[in-house]
Amino acid sequence: MTSQYEKVYAMDFGKVYGLLVNKAVKKGRTREETDQVIRWLTGYDQAELEEMAEGHITYGDFFRNAPKPNENRKLIKGVVCGVRVEDIEEPLMREIRYLDKLVDELAKGKAMEKILRG
Fold first, then answer.
1. Which of 106, 10, 105 is nearest to 62 (CA)?
2. Which letter does DSSP use for residue 27 in this model?
3. Are 76 and 117 in contact (CB under 8 A)?
4. How many other CB atoms sit within 10 Å of the CB of residue 32?
5. Taking the model in full, what pTM does it have?
6. pLDDT tens, residue by residue, 72-106
7. Among candidate residues 114, 112, 80, the one with its CA nearest the CA of residue 97
8. Which residue of 26, 78, 105, 117 sits 20 to 30 Å from the alpha carbon of 86, by its own alpha carbon?
9. DSSP state of 36
């Protein structure tokens, strides 16, 4: 049985990464802040993140291979695309929506320590 999310999982991470960075930059945040959020969530270091963004890895595999998903990611709550993040049952899609929510918060001007659940 194929998941309803397979199209999202198959997307090129580099392309999605560019969209996430652009969303933050358009709202006055930086690529560095976007990278910080992604690194916090996934455990990739900066060199690994850059390699993934320039390589050919799917969005699904980017999350499947995350070296050290942050334990505090479970504290991320709220609505993304009309769906409550904490109510998403598919684990991989929940990880993806966590990142969407963090970048939304970044773009809305939320303080970094709040975004990173500090």
1. 10
2. T
3. yes
4. 11
5. 0.94
6. 999 999 999 899 999 999 999 999 999 999 999 99
7. 80
8. 26
9. H
